[in-house]
Amino acid sequence: MKPTSQSRYTRVLLKLSGEALSPAHGGFGIDPEQATFIARRIKSVCALGVQVAIVIGAGNLWRGAGGVARGMDQSTADHMGMIGTVMNGLALQDALEHEGVKTRVQTAIEMNRVAEPYIRLRAIRHLEKGRVVILAGGTGSPYFTTDTAAALRGAEIHADVIVKATKVDGVYTADPKKDPNAKRFEFLTYEECLERKLQIMDLTAFTLCMERKMPIIVLDFWADDALEAAVRGEHVGTLIADADMHR
Q1: Is the separation of the CB atoms in 204 and 144 below 8 Å?
Q2: Which residues constitute the domain of residue 58?
Q3: CA torsion 91→57→235→240, rounded to 10°?
Q4: Checking phi first, is residue 25 left (phi over 0); if not, alpha (psi -120 to 50) or beta?
Q5: pLDDT at residue 3 in the model
Q6: How many domains does the structure of the chain reveal?
Q7: Are 56 and 18 spatial neighbours (Cβ–Cβ below 8 Å)?
Q8: Taking 90 as the threshold, does the pLDDT of residue 57 lie above it?
């Protein structure tokens, strides 16, 4: 895929945590204002001619680990989390549509009344037509995180890069909130991340990205213009990729 004149990447898989939709003051639930903020950020990237797919978590609605800790079967807890990602996907779709961005929600757990089933070629076709595609329902199987879903879907739809949206402006040598001397990495190879035991994604997801040579950009989604700048190929956040892929 050839990028447009305004961007380095043509097709981007954006990984959002469920907490991105939480109220700004914290807590659980879906805040429509946060959904609108996210939608406007995504709209600005679409305006560059970039195809955008999104995988979103459900931590704002349900944490499976908490259920398991209280004796719930993990398969049940994980399926509840996957259903939660569909709720978040629908909320984000609504916000995007209100911003004039055509959006489709596809889910690995079939819910034909509210969303399309995930079909790889259909998702790609939507992207080619300029629609944002929200890929909900995780992988459709328990025991896998939404990080793994992002890596898997990114590989399946041939995304050029995975953008992991966080509230930190990249990967640091230590926790920047605790260590004032912590330094941000501008570029890391996959091997360096493993050697330093940096937890970019869960190991299953990270290994899939490494095997597929799929670059990962970790950035502060809430920083002004950070997402747009990263898509244009500017030095924003931390890029994790092969050694020969310096920006």
Answers
A1: yes
A2: 11-241
A3: -150
A4: alpha
A5: 55
A6: 1
A7: yes
A8: yes
